[in-house]
Design brief:
The protein is an alpha+beta fold. It folds into three domains: about 10-205, 4-Layer Sandwich (Aldehyde Ferredoxin Oxidoreductase,  A, domain 1); about 240-425, Aldehyde Ferredoxin Oxidoreductase Protein, subunit A, domain 2, CATH 1.10.569; about 435-610, Aldehyde Ferredoxin Oxidoreductase Protein, subunit A, domain 3 (Orthogonal Bundle). The protein contains 27 helices and 17 strands. It has a six-stranded mixed sheet. Helix 1 crosses helix 2 (about 35-45). The longest helix is centred in the last third of the chain and has 23 residues, at about 520-540.
């Protein structure tokens, strides 16, 4: 096996209480890299079609890549993947944590968990020693308390991944967390972990990560760290991280407000990066091997959580601030702290709370049905409802299913307020005025998430509302870079995205680590392979596919903005359709978004064809 990879996969069967180590197929490593690539390959090949995501048969995958854990900028990442209980399709998320580095040092590229433990359990990995231990004493406790208890037992350098009460209660918008504020797996990865009675994964490793050219990698890493710090945007990034985006989104009419009804918010300055930096920030933290930390540690100044700290970023603040009509940062921070402790996805939490608020406002629900005095800006009521969601109490049980299922259950037009794509709640960019970003959301492989393509940046820079094939080519390039390469290598995209760290560093890193001399053209073929296989998985699990699955919420097409410099703006359906046509064409998919046989053959995915032909007709 080449350097970069350890060449080993650890499989843990919780039902049988056993683990086994298998060799990583070298061909699979080269063709899929790691992370998301290895995850989708395993799910496609090993998961029985139609598997219930919350059954013991689902696979929960913790996967690193050939750059994970190396002494390179922001390499402390892993991907957590499974069939999603929220969407019914492919689900994943990345997370920055010591567990990523420790897993590589323990000698594994991935851990694949199957089955269900008889009682609350945890997997403890210490190099070659793998144990399944009882976690009954941790079941029901918050992620913060679980983190503390496990650090006491295994040390502060141990890699620790935990779920909170949300995951235990199978809340479909629950996540996996680490280190009190890091979270990953928006499409319900916490619920998958909970369904297996798995409270925690603890990893300690002491081995050297194999490298093809250690001296060259050390040289490149040292230069790269200096390069990151030399960038013009670095100092401001260190001060505010992603929180600067509140002001940017307000200025560009993209700040989600009142459940994405508007894109500007009067109280934006009270919850923005400047207020955070001047009033609330007390420290910062980053992932392992990162020299541009993004975690803003802030102190709550008043309210029931006064004096406590929480880690803020743009997405969480926008979704639980402007999108809920809340301009009091203390309540935004309190909501964020609660989501982190409970193991609830803060983005989706903000979405389901906003959905319920609009439903009450429009008379589809009554406050009595919801069980709290729900109205825009009411932080205490929002927090009360969030607790009901985590505990599946009253109306919270409905919202715990996510906005798509909640809207279907409520009926009476509630679907029009449900801001999701493929079942995943839209993250924090309003797209009334942003055709390309709407398409990025529409075609994201996990549902409406910005991770794969933050395309709004190009539209702000180069013009909004442009429907051109060139724009779609740029979108696919961005998806292949962010969602293909970075999610499979696995390392963080932020040095490139936020401070302008040159992409040409990465093929050099890969060569020093693995010995493989890959160009970006080679890497984009790998990305194309991953995207087409993820799409095939969705089609198989859904029993077919229509273009509607790649459409953004109807609100952006039918309800124009009424405030701000772009008042009157809404998406044009014909333009979106044209962009989607070009997207399918450039991906090598047919007019319904189904990969063509010729595309699958070209990407080395011939084995996918027979399975897909059981549910859809494939074009040549």
């Amino acid at each position: 096996m080449r350097g970069g990879w350890t060449g080993k996969i650890l499989r843990v069967d919780l039902s049988r209480g056993k683990s086994v180590v298998q060799d990583l197929d070298p061909k699979a490593a080269v063709e899929f890299l790691g992370g998301r690539g290895l995850a989708i390959k395993a799910l496609w090949e090993e998961l029985r079609p139609g598997t219930d995501p919350l059954s013991p048969d689902n696979l929960l995958i913790f996967a690193t890549g050939p750059l994970t854990g190396l002494t390179l900028p922001s390499s402390g990442k892993m991907v957590i993947a499974a069939k999603s209980p929220l969407t019914g399709g492919y689900g994943d998320g990345n997370i920055g944590t010591k567990a990523s580095v420790q897993l590589k040092k323990a000698g594994y590229d991935a851990v694949i968990v199957s089955g269900k433990a008889e009682e609350p359990s945890m997997i403890v990995i210490e190099d070659d020693n793998v144990e399944i231990k009882s976690a009954k004493d941790l079941w029901g406790v918050t992620t913060y308390k679980a983190q503390d208890e496990l650090e006491k037992e295994y040390g502060k350098n141990a890699g620790i991944l935990v779920i909170g009460p949300a995951g235990e209660n199978l809340v479909k918008i629950s996540v996996v967390t680490s280190e009190k504020g890091r979270a990953g797996g928006r499409p319900g990865m916490g619920a998958v972990m909970g369904s297996k009675n798995l409270k925690a994964l603890v990893v300690k490793g002491s081995k050297e990560i194999p490298l093809d050219n250690p001296k060259e990698l050390a040289r490149l890493g040292a230069e790269a760290y200096k390069d990151v710090k030399s960038k013009e945007a670095y100092d401001f990034w260190i001060r505010q991280g992603t929180m600067m985006t509140i002001e940017w989104a307000q200025e560009n009419s993209a700040l989600p407000t009142y459940n994405f009804n508007e894109a500007v918010f009067e109280g934006f300055d009270k919850i923005g990066g400047n207020a955070m930096e001047k009033i609330y920030k007390v420290s910062q933290k980053g992932c392992p091997n990162c020299n541009m930390p993004c975690g803003n540690i802030t102190e709550i100044k008043e309210g029931p959580s006064e004096g406590r700290t929480t880690e803020l970023d743009y997405e969480n603040v926008a979704m639980n601030g402007s999108n809920l009509g809340i301009d009091n940062m203390n309540w935004v921070m309190s909501l964020n702290l609660y989501s982190d402790e409970a193991g609830l996805d803060a983005i989706s939490m903000g979405s389901v709370l906003a959905f319920a608020t609009e439903a009450v406002e429009k008379g589809v629900l009554s406050k009595e049905e919801v069980g709290v005095n729900l109205e825009w800006g009411n932080g205490p009521a929002m927090l009360e409802l969030a607790k009901m969601i985590v505990n599946r109490e009253g109306f919270g049980d409905t919202l715990a299913e996510g906005v798509a299922r909640a809207a279907a259950k409520i009926g009476n037009g509630a679907e029009r307020f449900a801001m999701h794509i493929k079942g995943l709640e839209v993250s924090a960019y309003d797209c009334h005025a942003y055709l390309g970003m709407a398409l990025a959301y529409g075609t994201s492989p996990i549902g409406a998430h910005h991770k794969d393509a933050w395309f709004i940046s190009i539209e702000v820079r180069e013009g909004r509302g442009v429907a051109s094939k060139e724009r779609v080519e740029k979108l696919i390039w961005m998806q292949n870079t962010r969602g293909g390469f970075f999610e499979s290598s696995v390392t963080c995209r932020l040095p490139w995205v936020e401070v302008g760290f040159d992409l040409e560093w990465y093929p050099k890193f890969l060569k020093a680590a693995t010995g493989l001399d890959m160009t970006w053209e080679d890497l984009y073929i790998i990305s194309d392979r991953i995207y087409s296989l993820i799409r095939a998985f969705w089609i198989r699990e859904k029993g077919g596919w229509t273009r509607n699955m790649d459409y953004p919420p109807v609100k952006w097409f039918e309800q124009p903005l009424t405030k701000g410099p772009l008042a009157g703006t809404k998406l044009d359906r014909d333009s979106y359709n044209q962009m989607l046509d070009w997207y399918y064409e450039l991906r090598g998919w047919d007019s319904n978004g189904i990969p063509r046989k010729s595309t699958l053959r070209k990407l080395g995915l011939e084995y996918v064809i027979p399975e897909l032909e059981k549910v859809v007709s494939l074009s040549e």
